Amino acid sequence: AQSVTQLDSHVSVSEGTPVLLRCNYSSSYSPSLFWYVQHPNKGLQLLLKYTSAATLVKGINGFEAEFKKSETSFHLTKPSAHMSDAAEYFCVVSGMDQAGTALIFGKGTTLSVSS
Amino acid sequence: NAGVTQTPKFQVLKTGQSMTLQCAQDMNHEYMSWYRQDPGMGLRLIHYSVGAGITDQGEVPNGYNVSRSTTEDFPLRLLSAAPSQTSVYFCASSLIGSGNTIYFGEGSWLTVV
Known about the structure:
The complex is a heterodimer.
Chain A: E1 3-6, E2 10-14, E3 19-21, E4 23-26, E5 33-38, E6 44-50, E7 56-58, E8 64-68, E9 73-78, E10 87-94, E11 103-105, E12 109-114
Parallel strand pairs in A: 2-12
Antiparallel strand pairs in A: 1-4, 3-9, 5-6, 5-10, 7-8, 8-9, 10-11, 10-12
Chain B: E1 4-7, E2 10-13, E3 19-25, E4 31-38, E5 42-51, E6 54-57, E7 64-66, E8 76-78, E9 87-94, E10 103-104, E11 108-112
Parallel strand pairs in B: 2-11
Antiparallel strand pairs in B: 1-3, 3-8, 4-5, 4-9, 5-6, 7-8, 9-10, 9-11
């Protein structure tokens, strides 16, 4: 069975400082992993995805994530936070249904950015 | 290029009422699904479909029905609304297979009083 754990429910950073959002996963086979972002009262936007190609994945808005099989982790990072990055972030693993398509969401990490 | 369109965006229901959340996509995706989002729970899968005429249950299907008569549409029906169904609902679509990007609608905010 697959699962995903976001290790922090809330992360606070200052503008211009690095961002680290932590995610561990459990999967019985090689997973596809995603990070989605949700701004207040909005839908979900794909930041990046890992599908067994390069282990370092670059996404939109300067975010990137590294797939580490030995640590079963897929942490999201950004070198320098911007006020517009304040949002909720979801780490996601795919493949729970017969089509191998459905997503299992982590419980989310709220990122706050202060000036 | 509309993507995934959900209606209505906001709805207030009384306990016991029925309603249908509409979802349509214009990307010719075989896979469509419904999720509900509750505080601190992430998104949880309600029902999904891998093509017209084929549906199946997800993690939290009780109290919801779906049908898929066309590739484009995947409505979610609440037959007798309960306060526990107060939530934000998201429809999503994609090509079938792990690793394909899933596209989400903007969400439907449902309150059951």
